[in-house]
Amino acid sequence: GDIPDILNHTGYLVAPSSPDQLAAKIEWIFQNLEEANDRGLQARKRCVEFYSIDAMATILSGVIATL
Prior knowledge:
The protein has helices at residues 3-7, 19-31, 33-51, 53-65. By secondary structure, it is mainly alpha-helical. The longest helix has 19 residues, at 33-51. The two termini are 28 Å apart.
């Protein structure tokens, strides 16, 4: 799917149906809170920049203008 592209290294991914990987990643996050919080801030910035209503409106207005 598009999730890796959407996250662009600002989040954490584990394989589907892998509770051991998920548990390990959650444990890592709690052991590295500063880095995890920094990634969270980067993810928020990325979402606002590329996926907010304002960002989507800009993209869609360009598409609609070509119709």
